[in-house]
Structure formats: C-alpha cells, structure tokens
Amino acid sequence: MIRAYTFLLRPTARQQVALGEMLRDHCSLYNGALQERRDAYRHASKTSVRYGDQSAQLKDIRAFDPERQGRWSFSSQQATLRRLDKAFQAFFRRVKAGQTPGYPRFKGVGHFDTVTFPKDGDGCRWDSTPHDRQTRVRLQGVGHVRVHQHRPVQGHVKTISVKREGNRWYVVLACDDVPAQELPPTGAVAGIDMGVAHFLTTSDGEHVGNPRFLQAMADELTGAQRHLATFPKRTRQRTKAHRAAARKVAKLHGKIRRQRADFHHKTARTLVRDYDVIAHERLGTAGMTKSPAPKPDPDRPGGFLPNGAAAKAGLNRSILDAGWAQFLGILANKAESAGRLVIPVDARNTSRTCPECGHVAKENRVTQAKFECTVCGFAANADHVGATNVLLRAGLVHCAAA
C-alpha cells in the first residue's frame, strides 16, 4: 500500500530563512516557465513548449543564476516544472471536455507553499536514525532540519515534500510497500447516512454530532477578514500590518482545517474498528454545493426572480464545513489498511424511500428529522431511515441479521 506521513518540522531561525528562500526561488522558476510558454504561444506562431524543453534548460539557468537557482536540488526543480506541465495537461483536458478550462496562473510568493523532492537521497535524505534523540531530514541548501516524528514510518520512502502552512513547516513522506495492519473481524456491518444536522447516522441508529468548526469560529474569522479588507489595495503586501492581518486569517483557517481533519480521522477510526463492512452514499459534493442558476424576470428586463441563492449558500457552507469528501477518503484509506470493506452506493432517494414497503415519495420526508411513509405509515428518524436504505442497497441486510 501507498501511504503519506506528515510531520512537523522544527527549523532553526537560519533554516527557516533558507526554507523561505527555497520556496521563493522555486516560485520564480515556476512563473518563469509559465511566462515562457505564454510568450512562445503568443509570439512564435502558437509554438508549444513542453516539459522536456524546459527541463533541458535547467543546466543553463543554474549556471546563469548560481545564487538563486544553482543552490537547490536539480530534481526538485524538475518536479516544479512537472507541476506546471500537469497544470497545462489539466487545462487542455478540461478544454476538450467542454468544461471551464482555467488557464494556469502565475503564483504569488505567498501562494507557492510546497517543494517536492522526487527521490529520497537526491537532494534530500530522510534520516530516521536519532541524532541527539531527534529525527532529522537533510535538505540541499538548508541543512539537517529537526523533525517532530510522532509515529513510526513504515514502508519505503519514495518522495519527500516540504510544505509551509502559515508559520509552520511540515515534511510529507510518500511511502510505498506499507504493510497492512488488519484488525480482527467483528462480524458487524453498517450503513451510514451523511448529513448536516448530524455529521453521520449509522444503520444501528447511532448519531455522530456535527462539530461545525467553521461556524464555531465564524465571528473571529469574520472580524479578521474585515480587518484585512480595510487595507487599500495599493498598500497590500507592502506593510507589516497587512502581512500580520493576512497571517491571522491564514492561522484561523489552518486551525479549522486541522480540527476538521482530526475529527474525521477519529470518527473513521471508530467506524473501522467496530464494523467489518461499511456502506455509504456516493456523494457528488461539487454538484451538491453548486450555486443555483439565475432566473431572469420576464417582466423586468435585466432583473431576476428569487432563486433561493441565499438559502442555498447557507446549505453549501454547512456541507463544505462538514467535509464529507475528505472524510470518505480517510475512511476508505483506513478501511484498506485494516482489512475492512467500504461499499459506496447510489445516494438517490435514500431519505425518501420507505425501508418497510419500498414506497418512494418526497412527502415521506415530513421534516429534516422525521420520516413517515404515506402508504404504510412507517415512521422513524429520517437519518436512520437513510442509513438503513444504504445498508439495503449494499446488500448487507442478511449479513447484519446473521
């Protein structure tokens, strides 16, 4: 199996400066390569510049600017050029599919936060042997940086990435050949229904509360964002006060993201520990959180009819705050490692179908929390009904009864 391990770095003041310079110079390389592609297409009869062409220029670039480009790992610079190449590949793929293309954009220094080393030992070295009771990672141009290794690394380290989040630095290890750690069978199966009122409900009737981390910090985050917006555009990124305000907003978002990820990991671990098979709805979060289309008013040229956009925005915010897609990805990874089975099923009408008689109707869902079949009169909690129907669609009812 392939697994990624993320550890906090503890660089010295000098190493932190060097890490910032490494990001800045890789960002400059990325933007320069993007500019070359744009110029070649516009001014050279629509000539396409590819990764191989730009990679071949790296040797000359490093010789021309040894202070900024020559000091860093050659392979990490190749990885930055591949990153740009993947952005263009995704752009052309969306063009062919008729989607919104999204042409690759230049990266600001504050938005280029990751440098990847494609191979352990080439410009970087993961040193798991303790030195002064500390694990370290060696980075070319930076030195041996201390790592807060809070758990052992299993498998073979393939790639190493250095990532900045606010004022924190992390190292991400991508490992393959990670052995599975199978859990003993429990004989239990479950269907889960994702929701907003409750984060999830199991077919056993157990509710897991929705912590709503974004809503809990909404007031503090709103205040920080309003303060950031007070700075005129002409002074942005130029004053110490503006940079401090931007760091505060980023810090709050980082805290919310870490809280949400911690909750997802703990909830997924509990499910994987208690059940051998877990069925869940196949959710398209991107489509569910799409804004409603505007409705032109035929009586007022240039005017629009109410389309429920404000109410939908609140629901979209709640769905994104819950982070269903991230949770289901974490659940699948943990289940694979533990030797459990995860089954996604069709999500349509799971909360409108009666599990007793099979009648499907919008009217069956009386309220957010109440389900009552209009044919047979079966009544239960709506989320519990949804989880039961997920279990039925996965064909696990007989397993649960056994």
- Looking at how many chains there are and whether they match, the oligomeric state comes to single chain
The strands making up the biggest β-sheet line up spatially as 2-6-7-1-5-4-3
> What class would the helix/strand composition place it in?
alpha+beta
Tally the structural domains.
2
| Number of E-state strands | 16
Distance, first to last CA = 32 Å
Query: What share of residues are in beta strands?
Result: 15-25%
Percent of residues in helices: 40-55%
Number of H/I helices: 12
Low-confidence stretches: none
SSE order:
EHHHHEEEEEEEEEHHHEHEEHHEEEHH
* Shape estimate: globular
How much is the radius of gyration in Å? Answer: 26 Å
| Overall pLDDT | 90
Largest sheet: 7 strands, antiparallel
